[in-house]
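Archive entry. Fields below.
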Amino acid sequence: MSVETTSLPAPKAALSNSQLALCFVAAAVVMTVVQYLGGLPEWLHRLPEALVPNFAGWLDAIFNFVKDDLGLLVVTRTLTEGLEWLLDASGNIFFGKRRWPNIGPIPWTAMAAVAAVVGYYLGGWRLALLGGGTMVWTALIGQWEIAMQTMSVLAIAAPLAFVIGLSLGIAAWKYAWVDNVIKPVLSVLQTLPFFTYLLPAVIFFKVGPTAGAVATTIYAIPPMILMTTLGLKKVSPEVVEAGKMSGCSRFQMLRHVYLPSARTEILVGVNQVIMLCLAMVVLTAFIGMPGLGAKLLAMMGSFKLGRSFEIGVTIVLLAVMLDRMSKAWVVKQPVHFERGTPFWKRHQMLLLGIAAFVGLTLISLVAPIFAEIGRGQDFSQGKELDNLIKAFLNIEWVKATTGFLRAFLNVQVLIPFRNFMLSIPTPAFILLVAAFALALAGRKQAIYAVIFFSLVALSGWWDRAIITLYSVISAVTLAALIGLPVGIIAARSEKWSTRVLLICDTAQTFPSFVYLIPAIMLFGITDIAVIFSILIFAMVPLTRYTIEGLRTVPEEMTEAADMAGATRMQKLWSVQLPLALPTMAVGFNQAIMFAFFMVIIAAFIGTQDLGQELQRTLAGTDLGKNFVLGICVSLMALTFDLTIMKWASDKKAVLGL
Amino acid sequence: MKKMTTALTAGVLSLAPLAALAQDSNDPIVIPIHNWSSQIVMSNVVGQILEENGNAVEYVTTDSQAVYESVRLGDVTLELEVWEGAFGASFREALDKGGIVDVGDHNAVTREDWWYPMWTKDACPGLPSWEALNDCAALFATAETGDKGRYLDGPVDWLKHGQERVEALGMDFVVVNAGSAAALWAEIGAAEADKRPIVVFNWTPNFAEAVWPGEFVEFPAWVDGCDTDPSVGPNPDALFDCGNPANGYLKKAAWEGMEEKWPSAYAVLEQVSFTNPQIAEMARLVDVDELEPDEAAEVWLEANPDVWQGWVN
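PREDICTED_STRUCTURE:
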């Protein structure tokens, strides 16, 4: 065995991976043609209903057993009470919920001042302006209370995710078996549609902010674990040696040697936690999370485009503020003072913050406008924005364009493509996916692909899974057609790169729900509206990684190309793009992951895919079905993830990057 | 405000002898809020009435179908808008499982059916009859539906049987399911711009009536058994060959333990009853006047003391 594997190419393997892949494709094509000619038996086209195992029923039985007989529900409901107490307390502080400690709400002016001081401390005037400005905008637009409802939950969920993620990360770094258990769970968690987190959260943690906090926490944990382990693994042996020599105990090693050395990675993890928490703001509104998300859904339910847009802006501002501040914190190194520096000098920012906070709180006691913006005092422009958006959608050329897209792209391209995908027999489809994995990555990935897609077929949701896949593929293809050229052009200059990256950041944090309505108004309830809304989201990583890939091409390479007298196009095609390809592949992979994420949200437009079924389970107590559907999405996403990532790392190794 | 204080004092005084008998728990009564305006304002209205009654009240945002499971578990205490058409099934299912009780009807009717905004009538003057609608089918065609008309139904999980009705009555329509209520509004909003004829699923009472005046399509009248017995209705071989009932109920529901835990609040809830115009007015305060729900509730309570003060006493 060992002889065979070392002498490559193995003499026994008559076919190379790509030849084998071609055989798969040929078999699939033959099967599809036979199907079109009507010669294929029905059981080969689709798995007969009778053979579909009742996964949902079994899972339900297991859930019920664990929930009731093993008493998990009692445990989680007890935990819920503790969590509720925390949330009540933070609710009181942030927006004056009538609970212990009965001191809130903090006046908005005081909050804005503190945000500005923190911003100044972390990153100077620009961040001070961003921090204070965001708070002032939120208050003046009349969203202060709902924004604080959101913040009161995030203030509990984010630290919780941080603590759990950090502990699990440390455990995974310390013990190999924990790492082995956590890794696959994490990959599934990262591809599982969020609707699958929501239902168990409601059942085990009670509808309302508690379930919202739990779902948010679970969603935000994975990157924290990954970044912690990554940081700890990178600690240099010299530092460890120094710690050992000074006689640290095991805990001291961790506390004073490892964790400080991994500071940067851990803080990047914190940044990720915050961003993911914000991403869940709107989604958790489905399970009773109060605040901005709930308001946004209510606004959408009564066709208030302008107001929902304003809420979207608030969410983006909050996200950008927290993102920039936590990134500034990553870069900021601890400041050291000389011995004997007076207390006020060492802590002048802290003192300034406290002074501003106390001062404004006192002022707000006599001047209520400093504490709360009341009825009719805000500057919301909801109605005007409504009219503006409607007027834009009614411009003649906009309508002509969308009408053309609808008649051409939808009727001529997308719908036939969907019908074609649906007409491929199940085994042929699995062979095609396997061929794809085999050609790009290798046999291991191909085997995974076969197993994963066979499971999807066994779940009995094959047609819906294919429609899901169809939306993802169409959207990512279109996103690549638009996003790659934009990235390539932007990468030419520093100035444009930063601008486009800023747009990417905004597009990513802007709640996707807000553009569902304009998408429908533009394209009607059609596949195009669905794909359009996925497209916006999927384009972001494609553009971002293209820019990053092209801008990190080693300078020697481009210089060599210049010296050889290559034209700009030659340089791009033969030097820069090939070198940037592995990085771009990572972006492509993320685009697919984002598309799988968004396609579920697009169920709100109206689809016939897995997302629609998932959305339907939210209303009930069908835990088993909910889980089966979620796993289907996850398995398909994982197949692409495994294949493309393997390809990218192989390519990187070959290129010596 | 003054009136309210007087009412409160009167209420407390008259309740004083009763209070000795039945004391409400100090725990907050949890009222669920969904994503449509009338329900949100009504919940705030009743919440503020209960506060006048001396109860502690809290609001929680929930899904409008999942809420019945939460009521059953006591996680939320009551539900103020149980629509026959939309939530009847979930409500009945929860009733069967136990833990939830029916607290009576509002003095209001609900209706859900095919609906069109007024401008559609200009293009198809024979409306609201369904036969006339069918004759104009081509007017409702889209790029995707060819020469058949498109009818935009509610989300699939609302189980509106639009497809079955089209088949049962042999209509030239293709049924497309929207994914959410918001998607329906977006389509009407887009059609409004150039007054394009459109026929969609809609219901009353609803904010949309105030924004886009319109009418329901008149199908063969509902007869009991239309959904279970093929021989009922014009087509002897098909189910769902009539319109939906034009006078569905609007109920209140509560957690089984509410009567024992908050007896006086439960007594108030039993008396709560709003009419269609009152519900529409509540929705209008939010949707047209752009008040926040709690402010809208205050305004409504101040404007309509005669309606609710009797309930507290």
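CURATOR_NOTE: Chain A touches chain B through 56 residues (CB under 8 Å).
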